[in-house]
Amino acid sequence: MIEKAAERAAELTRQLVAFSRKQVLQPKVIDLNAVVTHVGTMLRRVIGERVELVMSLKPRLWHVKADPGQIEQVIMNLALNARDAMPAGGRLTMTTTNVTVEATSQRQRALAPPGAYVALTVSDTGCGMDAQTQSRVFEPFFTTKEIGRGAGLGLSTVYGIVNQSGGAIRVDSEPGGGSTFTIYLARVDDPIPPLEPRRPAIEALRGSETILVVEDEDEVRDVVLQALGINGYSVLQARDGREALAIADRQPGPIHLLVTDVVMPHMNGRELAEQLSPRRPEMKVLYMSGYTNDFVRSPSAGDQQTAFLQKPFSCETLGQKVRGVLDAGAPAALVHVHE
Question: What integer best gives the mean pLDDT of the chain?
Fold first, then answer.
């Protein structure tokens, strides 16, 4: 138990380091409205039928410079946090607007220097937070959820990405009155660059294969399930290796791909793959982790890396990686996790 707890702590620490310092962002001039609209199409399925999604996007919104994939991650994390705050349902509202922080505005000045910003607001009608919770909400590993329902990295991830993007974030909430998160990103006057050479069409990322997703963090698992489901895959899900083995034993048809976290309770990703592969010789393996990709190596292939996806990742990156692994030749070699 102590070893497993230490493994989990190391995994979460590595993720946090990536979020706060080492995450390689690819900032570009973007229209934030376009990013919010794109994420919104997926959010309607992720948040469920009991939560109403309302978007109010300001026309002629100023441009900002940020990594669009990471901003998608920010929006997704805030939306999942809002969903969890409304177990009986409610309203999730996302708005964008142009904001000028005046030198005379003491409250705004404390958050961001005077200047022109684009503000993204994500608000919910959920349970809200008291002042003590608000003061700790962006701390890594802080969570009000029950054990096993989240690691407390969702909002600290948001904070890290926004901070690394040169922005600022604030939260306004009260018990029983919902919560509002507001992100400020500095305005840029540069035009949005011309479209890059056309990337593979979304249709090329679609498939009909059966994929088993094993991830103990509910938020991450939800995003992966929805992203794969939208692309047409048949998706099975498990919270840990034991549950995955039971699901695989009950599955009458083939399992074409195992998408698994590396470090999980009871059984890590390598051990799961080692037990499943003899039973499922057709199955390929894709590991996802906050560790760098030299954490997972194939002993039978020297320095060749196994199929690996670094967290955090965008839904598009996930789709491309899954399709690439499925279209590759033989099932991936088993790997050893250096512990």
Answer: 80
